[in-house]
């Protein structure tokens, strides 16, 4: 693209504008082209697609009652699904880590699972968490 631009400018210089315009004009024109090209490339490299989530999740109290989970166990489950550790969950809920472990153990029994990942998957299937 630069070679074509230089060729075009040289052709114009020899053909029509050899006496009318100075070298500063051509340098300015090339600089403007590079600024536009640089801005376009920069916007393409740094452009990130925005992901808009339009689904809203509402917990059905009947499902929660059927699952037999308490509100605190549901909070622990939601924080687990966000990838928080037991200590992080404890810090967010202002309880001890052992309390979180107790809630997690109760969750596993009530959901009939053995691991966090299984609990999260089953809770999503039961529409307890988004």
Mean pLDDT: 82
CATH domain class name of the largest domain: Mainly Alpha
Structural class comes to: mainly alpha
What does the overall shape look like? rod-shaped
Number of DSSP strand runs: 0
Supply the number of structural domains.
2
The percentage helix is over 70%
The biggest beta sheet is recorded as: none
What is the end-to-end distance?
50 Å
Instruction: Indicate the CATH topology of the largest domain.
Output: Arc Repressor Mutant, subunit A
Task: Provide a brief overview of the structure.
This protein is mostly helical and 130 residues long. The protein has helices at 2-17, 23-46, 61-67, 71-81, 86-93, 97-111, 116-125. It has two domains: 2-46; 61-125, Arc Repressor Mutant, subunit A, CATH 1.10.10.10.
Q: How would you describe this protein?
A:
Helix content is 70%, strand content 0%. It has 130 residues and is mostly helical. The chain folds into two domains: 2-46; 61-125, Arc Repressor Mutant, subunit A, CATH 1.10.10. α4 crosses α6 (97-111) and α5 packs across α6. The longest helix has 24 residues, at 23-46. It is rod-shaped, with a radius of gyration of 32 Å. The mean pLDDT is 82.
Q: Which tags fit this structure?
A:
mainly alpha, Arc Repressor Mutant, subunit A
